[in-house]
Amino acid sequence: MTTPETATIADATANGAALALDLRGVHTFYGHIHALKGISLSVRQGEIVTLIGANGAGKTTTLRTISGIMHPRQGEVRLNGQRIDRESPHRIVSLGVCQSPEGRRIFSRMTVQENLEMGAFARKDAESARKEDLERVLTLFPRLRERLKQKGGTLSGGEQQMLAIGRALMSQPRVLLLDEPSMGLAPNLVETIFDTIVAINQTGVAVLLVEQNALMALNVASRGYVLETGRIVLEDEARALQQNERVQKAYLGIE
């Protein structure tokens, strides 16, 4: 098992894939509150990595720091080797990182189509390319195609989650950040959402997944990190974490 103290950048590239996302010694604060205490993690190109932990552990803060909504006081965030920790959120989106936030946060008074088009706001390419990506999203989420002219606020919870992920995909991300995609969904929809995450990843998009349903997250991820009170306390292959007694007791409900 690898611990944060012994993990190195060489470990992250051991399988030959280049790093898509790389956090090194990141410290993030809310005012005087020290939320992230020197965390380091990586996501290789084409990989699903999950970040699990209890409420308040710092999972969402990690994603907000990557997205540029918050800036670390110490440490670095790199995308394909380029530092992005001082960039603005919209610049980070244009560089290839997009987040589907906790609680979906769709534009409830806008139609499904308008929500999806908003996801492409930072793009400077041709309208034809954006239309092609819209078609890909609608193929991935057929329910959205049926509701294109419907207001986002009238959708079910599962449909709103599909819309939030679809909106993020419209930015053409190289790294997709997902914050609690299964929250509040019925079990059958949870399976649908996770199947979709795998399908998105198979197109070459790297995924960093924050998820309370640790078992589902570890089932789809190749690697995982455990975050406790702002510190990464465990890092390992997903299957190994599923067998870890500490993880089983704390996050999988196994005594």
Q: Which CATH first-tier class would you pick?
A: Alpha Beta
| Largest sheet report | 6 strands, mixed
Q: What's the number of structural domains?
A: 1
Q: What is the number of strand segments?
A: 10
Helix/strand order, N-terminal first: HEEEHEEHEHHHHEHEHEEHH
CATH fold topology: Rossmann fold
Physical arrangement of strands within the biggest beta sheet: 6-7-8-3-9-10
Task: Briefly say what this structure is.
The protein is 37% helix and 25% strand. With 255 residues, the protein is an alpha/beta fold. β7 (175-179), α8 (187-202) and β8 (206-210) form a beta-alpha-beta unit.
Q: How is the topology of this model organized?
A:
Elements: H1 9-12, E1 19-30, E2 33-44, E3 48-52, H2 59-67, E4 74-79, E5 82-83, H3 89-95, E6 97-100, H4 112-118, H5 127-140, H6 142-146, H7 157-169, E7 175-179, H8 187-202, E8 206-210, H9 214-220, E9 223-228, E10 231-237, H10 238-243, H11 245-251
Parallel strand pairs: 3-8, 3-9, 6-7, 7-8
Antiparallel strand pairs: 1-2, 1-4, 4-5, 9-10
Name its key features.
255 residues, 11 helices, globular, disordered N terminus
Please characterize this protein's 3D structure.
The chain is α/β, with parallel strands linked by helices and 255 residues long. The protein has one domain: Rossmann fold. It is built from 11 helices and 10 strands. Strands 6-7-8-3-9-10 form a 6-stranded mixed β-sheet, with helices on both faces. A 4-stranded antiparallel β-sheet has the order 2-1-4-5, with helices on one face. Helix 4 (112-118) runs parallel beside helix 7. It is globular, with a radius of gyration of 18 Å. It starts with 8 loop residues before the first helix and ends with a helix. Mean pLDDT is 90; it is low at 1-14.
